[in-house]
Every structure is written in C-alpha cells, then in structure tokens.
Give the backbone structure.
Amino acid sequence: MHGQDAHATAQPVAAEKGSSLGRDAWYRLKKNHLAMASLWFFIAVVILCFFLPLAPGIPDPNVTHPDLQSMPAFSSATSMEGAEVYYLLGSDHLGRDIFSRMLYGGRVSLAVGFLATIVSLTIGVVYGATSGFVGGRTDAVMMRIVDILYALPFMIIVIILTTYFGNQLWLLFVCIGAVEWLTMSRIVRGQVQSLKGQEFVDAARSLGLSNWHIIRRHLIPNTVGPVIIYTTLTVPAVMRLEAILSFLGLGVQPPDASWGSLIKEGADRMASDPSLLVYPAIVFGMTLFSLNFLGDGLRDALDPKSSKD
Amino acid sequence: METLRYVVSRFVQSLFALLCIITITFFLARLAPGGPFLDEKAVPEHLIEQMKRNYGFDKPLPVQYGLYLGRLVRGDLGPSLGNKGFTVNEVIAEGFPVSFMLGISGLVIALLVGVPVGVFAAANRNTAVDYSLMAFTMLGICLPTFVIAPLLGEILGLKLGWFDVALWENSSAWVLGALTLGLYYSAYIARLTRGSMLDVLSQDFIRTARAKGVPPGKVLFKHAFRGGITPVVAYLGPALAGLIGGSFVVETVFGLPGLGQHFIKAATNRDYWLINGTVTVFAVLILVMNFLVDILQGWLDPRTRSNK
Amino acid sequence: MPRPFPQPTREGYLPDLTLFSLRGFLIVALLFSVSSCRDESKVDIATREKILLLGNGGEPKALDPHIVSSVGDANILRSTFEGLVTYHPENDMLHEPGVAERWEANADFSEWRFFLRKNAKWSNGDPVTAHDFVYSFHRILHPKMAAPYASMLYFLKNGEAFNKGEIDDFARVGVKAVNDFELLCTLDRPAPYFPDVVKHTTWLPVHRGNIEKFGAMTDSYTEWQKPGNQISNGAFMLTDWRINAQIKVRRNPHYWDAANVKPNGINFYPIDNNFTEEKAFRNGLIHYTYTTPENLIEDYKKMENTPLRIETYNGSYFYRCNVTQAPTDNADFRRALAYSVNQEVIVKYVTRGGQQPAYAFTPPSEDGYHPPDVIHYDPDKALEYLEKAGYASGADVPEFTIILNTSEAHKSVAVAIQDMWKKTLGIKNVKIENQEWKVFQQTVLDINYDVARAGWIGDYVDPTTFLGMWVTGDSNNNTGWSNPDYDRLLRESSLLSDPAQRYAKLAEAESILLDQVPVLPLYWYTRVYLLHPDVKNWNPLLLDNHPYKHIDLQSSKTVKEGAQ
C-alpha cells in the first residue's frame, strides 16, 4: 500500500505554463459562449458584406426598376423593359434589390464604424488618460480645449470641410472620429482620476517608473472596463452619425447606400413600406448586439481582477 | 476656501473658453460658402451689395468682429437674418423654454429608467434578467432617434391615441418628444451604469461588506453605487447639454418650436448672428454642466478631486 | 436568523421586481387609454369656431410684403394685406377687384389707371388711399431697402433705374396718385396682363404711419411686423406669431368686405417635415397639408372619399446644363440626354403625384399660351444624337455629375435618371452629388456644375415669367446659355399688345430653347395635398393662391365618421 501511494505521489507536478494577460483573456473569452457566438456572427457579417457581392447572381444594388417597387421578399418579376429579376428580400421604392443594397451598405457602415471608432478611441483614451493623470493646470487646459471643441457648430465645420475637400468618404471618418473622441476622453479622465489615488499607482511611482509608463501600462489597462463599454456605444453612435450626415447631404452619395441611409429611407417610408425599415434595422441591430456581447465578454475576459479560479 | 478658489478659477477658465468659442465660430461661419442673401430666385447683384452694406458685412472682418463683441457685452445678440422681425435674443428666448422642458423631462425619464435598469442588470449578472434588460437597451442604442421618434408617433400617437402627434400649443406631443429623448439616453446610462457597477461589485471592499453580513440592498446602494455611478456622471455633462440644447430630429418629427431646430436652420440659412447666438448659448450650457458634473463627481468619489 | 447568501454572480440581490413593474405598466396604460378618449378632435373644434388650420411649409422669413419671396410667406400675407387686384376664388385667369374696384388701360396697354374704392380701410380705421400705394412702391424700389424681389416692379417706367440708384427722384418713376382714389401706372412696355402682375405680394400696400413709427422707411428689421404692431388692410389681422410654432390671424373688423368674410380666423402651422405634417392631418390637428409625402400618395388615392387633392400647378421641374464646359457644352449631347429620359416613368413610378411629363419648358395654360410640343422620350433618336456628338458609345462619355440639394424626392428622381442614361445611352460615368442648400445655390450661381436640378414656379400666369429667365445674362439663367435670336424674339414680343401675336412670338422663342436644350424639361408640377372634408369653396387654382375670405368651414361629420 505504501508503495502505491509513494508511486502516486512520486509523479512530478506539471510546471504551470507561464501565460500573459492576453492568453488568459483569450482563454476566458472562449469559455463565454455568448461572446464567442457573437464573435462568429460578427465575422460572418463582415465576410458576407465584403465577399458575397463578388459572387455571381447578386444583383447590382443600383439598378432601378421603377415599375417594380415595393415587391415582397422571395418574389420574381419581369420589368417593363423585359429584365427578369428575383428579389430575395423584396425591392425598394425604385425597384432596387434590398438584400444586395444591404450587403453593399454594410461595407460602408462597417468600414466607417471601425475606422472612425479607432480614430476616436486612440485619441480619446490617450488624451483623457494623460489629462486625468497629470491633473492640475494641464488637466484644466486640456479639458477646456475639449469643452471648446465640443461647443463648436459641427454642421458648419462639416460644410466647410466638404466644400474644400469634396465629398470624400475618408473625410467622413475624420469628421465622425473627431467628434466622438471628446466624450471618450472625459470618461477616461474620470476613471483615471479615481484610479490615481489608489495604492498601486504609488507603488509604481516608488519603483521609479516614469509617468508615461504608469499611464500606459497601469492606468490605461485599468480603464479598460468603461472604455470597452463606451466603445461598444461609440460604434453605433458612429454609424448613426453617418446616417444623419447623409441625411444632411454629406457622406455616402446616392445611389450608394450605407446601413444608416437605408434605415433613414426606411424610417421615412415606415407607414407605407415597413420592410424597407425592418430588414436593414434587424441586420444593423444584430450586428450591434453582437458587438455589444462581444464587448461585454472582452471586458470580463480582460478584467485583471478576475481570478484564475 | 479651497473650494472658492476652485470655483473662481473654473469660472475664469470657462470665460476664456467661451471667448475662444465665440471667436472661432464667428470666423468659421463666414467661411462657409454661400451667404445669407442667396435665394432660389436670384437676387440681382446690386441688391445683394446693398444688403451687405445694411448689415455691415462690407466692412473688413476684424472690424465686424470688434463690433460684434461690443454688441455681445451689451447683451445684444443682433438681428436674425433668417427670421426677420425678430432679434436673436427673441428667437433664443422663444426656443429655450421649450428645449429646456423637453430636455429636463427627457433627463428625468433617462435617469429613472436607465440607472435602475443598469443596477438590476449588474446585480443579476448573466441571468435572463440581465440579458433581456441589455437587449432592451441595445434597442435604444441601435435605433436612431429618427426611427424611434416617428415610431412612437405612429404607435402611441396615432394608433393608440394617447398623445397628440405634433405641434406645441395646446398639444401633448411634447411628451412623445421627451419619451424619445429619454429612452435614447436611458439606454446609454443603463449600459454605463451596469458596466461600472460590475467593476465596483467585484472589488474587495464589497466582499468585505458582504462577509460582514450587510444586507444585499444596502451593499448595492450604499456601498457600490457611489463608485459605480462615476462614469454616468461623467457622461451626464455632455448629455445634459445635448438634451437642453435640443434635438433637431425630435423637434422636427413632433413639430416642437425648440432651440435644436435653430442650430441646423441657422447654419443652413447662413444666419451669422443666430449661429453665433445659438453656439454661445450652447457653449455656456456645456461649460456650466461640465463644471457642475465635475463638482458632483468630486463629491461622490473623493478620490477624483483634482489636485496637484 | 441571517439570510443565507446567494451566489453573487448567479442570483439576484433584490426581489424580482419584473412582475411588479409589468403590472404597474399595464395599469398606467389602462388609465391612459381611458383618459385620452377625446370626443372632439382639434379640427372639429376649429370647424365649429370657423378657424382654418393650415399647414404652411417652413417658418416664414418675414411678414413684410417687401422682403418676402417664398410661397409660404406669401400665403400669410395674402390673408393680412390686399392689393389693387386680388385672386378670384375659382379661376386664376380672372381678376377680382381688391382695393381697386375697376381699372382701365390705354390703347397699347402701357398705361393703367386704377380707381380705388372709397370704403377700403386699414385695420386701425384709416382709409386706404392711392398715396399708400405710391409710398409702398417707393419703399420696395428704394435701393437702400434692398428688397430681394424689387425686380417685380421693373414694369414701372424708370423703376429699374431708380432701384439701381441711377436716378434719385422717385417722382420720375411711373406711378402717380392722381387723387386720393386714383392711381396711374406708366409702364416701360405694353403689358396686357398687368392686372395679373399687381396681384403679387410685392405690389401690396403698407401703412406709412405704421412703418415710420418703428423706424425709417427703408429699415427692414423693425418691430412693425409683429402682432399688435402691424396695421394691415386685408380680411384678417396678425394676432400671434410664435417662431416655428404658429402664426395666427383673426378677422379684421375694418376690412371693407368684412361682412362677406367667412372664416373667423386662420392658424398657419409652419411644419417643415412633410411626414410630420401628414401625421398631424391624420391625427385631426390640421385641415390642410402643404404637401404630401410621395410614398403615401398611392394609399390615399385608394381611399374612399379621399382627402387627397392633385391639381395642376404653374411650375416646371427641370435640369440645368452648363453649356460652357464639356461634355454638356455640346448641343447634340444635351439632346441625347433630353430624349433618353423616360418622363412617363418618372411621373408614374417615382414622383407619383399626377405630374405631367413636360414636352416643353413653359407649362401650357388652357385659355392662354400653348408651348411647342417637342421633348418626348425617344431612345433611338437619343442614340443618334449621342453619335452626332462624337461618342461611339456611352462608355466614351467623360465623367460628369448631377448635383442636387439634399432632399429624398430629388434624390429619387436623380437616381432614376442616372440609371436611364446608363441603360439607354450606355453612359457609365455619370455621378450624383448632394450639396448643402446654400452651397448648391452658390455652385449654380457660379456656373460651376455639369448638370443641376432645378425648379421654377411662375409668379403670374404669363409665359414671360418662364421664358424671361433664359435671356442672355438674366440673373436666373445660370447656364451660360446665350442666344441672340432668343433675346431678340423676347424683346420683340414685349412690344406687342395683341395676345395672339405675343404668344406666337414667344412660342417661336421657346422653340429655339427646346432645340438647343440648355435645360432638360422633366415635368410640370402638381400640388398634391390633403384637404379635410370640412373645408368648402377650396377650388383648384393654377397659382394655388387661395383668397381665404371665401373659404367656409362646415362640419362634415353628420353623415359618416371621418375616414379612419
């Protein structure tokens, strides 16, 4: 008996594999089924929007058949010019295929959402963290600058910029990103200010770490919670702002579409043609839902306070 | 004494910021192409020149700027070019109470709905309650105001007949406007609250309180709430200003004569003085709101008090 | 006994309030539905009190007849002021006496005498005299007033010169008060249609004492326009003006025909958004909408006893072409563009408002001018012109852009036309660009575009208000097009006094316009609006300038409930 025990306990304990924050986070994320489902869904949407239109059989989203307006889903018809068309999700007020417009529109919206959010995230987080951490007069000046920028008339600025640079899509990213970073910086600043007083900051300082190092490696990761949450709020805000801008005549130009402009066209025609609103709104909503759950999952996964057990 | 110094210093900073805003807007507005005198039916050249002379737009820009500042100091925001017969002061005075009422009602709804939803969701994390509440808030975030507003109008106004669908005088349409704004902002507030409550709830002092046997309600509202509410308070500053500054979409969909419409219309009409006037009012709002919010934040969470 | 601790991450801290709040919500909902059953809608109350509730488009820029230029403003002024001649309730070609009870012209229609009635009064009791009109014309023509529409009065001899500052003395301008009740107008050209012209807002009188109490004659910013200050001579007086909310006018007791004024008052609602307006109509908040969203037109058409009205309107929707730069500088290319647009399809499927495809530029009028019948959809002809223009196929056409100001309606039309050019002519490189309103106007003014969307509403029923724009250098031309024959024909027609001869010459000029197509005519406007059955005597009018005093309100609820 003793021998068996000795044999059992003689097995070496496997050395724990060292792992980084990133790997821990990925592992935790994988266990969150909802977040993983959302991730796959989001990837599926991106792939569909960017690659499905390359397949044959997807109609041109800008071809009009004015006599075939408001056809229901899964319908086929022949236009007065003799063209045979099949509408997967029906047609809009000019006879264009809704499904195909949603695919092409997705490209624009996803690109705008992604890029503008990155712009606003980068600027907002760095600016807010620095301001909150440094405090004092620098903080006051930086926040007043944010106040000033926030109060300026956005519409006029966009009008001027589009007059000088033309109606380019990249200008859209810049304008939107330039607006969204302001609120992000305030939130980050608030977080950093409350973290500033905590012991680990003092500990870091007493170790002789530079301010910049502290901001980068200790404070910013700790603001990850609200930042991720606010980012999942920013992406829809960006897509919505894009819709409003196209409503004012800027951004995506007709006949091209984005999810925002499709939703706007649908909202206008809500009383007579609800499907113009419902389909794009559902896709838009589900994409944002998935981003949201993914964000939640990321937040949980990246939370340094979560213990390994 | 220190608070007084802080207040005074903020006041001075805000004045300076206000001056910057007014100046930048003044020159920006005049940079936009077109002008207040262009119309669909062409106006002969010599008349446009005369109009410019009548309003002093023929003088060099720095001179116009100086004259404008002189007017501002006396509280005269100038005549409105798009609403002739009214001064900018009158236009803003007519629109502000409407926007204010809409904004405050919207804020009350947003807080009354958003904070509890966020707290409940955080308290019941990862349960069906949490998921369904968050799904509900996602609706508020995904659907832009220009979708929610007409939807509410059709359903609550026309189909159910609970409220009037439009207009201001003698009409209950403003409730729909407040609802739209409130629901929209409540979604943001709910998500922010949930997120930060989750952060706070996972901290050590909460564990200590629970271990001590503090009842769950008290843990939630007395201990966790203060810290959890910080990001919401930070968000409130711009949110309040936006609410009171008025929402163009809500006002247009429900036909409410608030300030929000003027922001867009003034820009569209190139009504220089009204642009400046509305931006100034909005700027004052933001500066005041941010100041109040910073104070509130400092009181709620003493760790955030800004000191060297 | 201490409550056992639930696992914090799995169960709730607080009792489940969901069921409680759901019950609460249902109770509140029930209360609401009970309390809001309204017996009488706003419209019913207004009908009873004989107040017309009208949707009026956007907020007026002003209520001073000498500053305004848009239709919405003019609608309000038509209720508060009255000119020499006013609008007939049933036929826009007829002239109803206003302040003037009769008028006569000299042999060649270049001199007109107006005989004012003796009992016309201002809202403060003062009599309306010929001197009021002289003062008013002086004011609007005064250079310092900078009245944007002063050019409407260039009919008067020396009017243009006075307005441009070339002459100083107003006495030299062709209007004189022969005595208190006789006004003599001397024109710079024969104008048999002059009574039509003086119906326009710009010819309305203002009260001298009223204006000068609040400032100088030429100050355009004074308080005189405000309710309580304003003295007017029309059937109604201004009683309330709240920006973006409402404008109210009520019965003017001093009006000479007050006994025959049917409504007690009018509330104008400046509702910008046409969907909001339609919802307000459905909700029983207004009697009349200014316009109708085009996606609801079909549904309204199908209704029994529909409130939808579709009426011909004196206006033209077209595209301007920049004839000073390629590719639109080539007349054959422009012809190709014009003949490849299927106007029927646009009118039937895109705008859906019963508009008429435009075979010319000037809309035809029944008893008056008939424009030449030229522009029709003809894809084969279009392709021929494309070849003549030097393009082997549409793919060779260089990139050009249609610009428009932001609007769903304009966008739909442009997208349809862009696709038509693609399909019929094979043009691949035509783009559409939205421009913000003022940027758009500036671009057109600077002639800095390829093709630009445009619309034009005639001020009075005469073809010159449409054809005059295309004269070389006219401030509304903005295409760079200049044709000496066209100019000459227009000049010659202005010297003719016989209507038939005039029309013939104008038709000749229009043929040139339609041959050279610096503009692509698309369709002629209709007014598409919703009218509550309570409103009576609201007749279709070409200019849509309804004289409100004839409009009656009678409840239509006795027979049937309103169409729900």
About this structure: The mean pLDDT of chain A is 78.
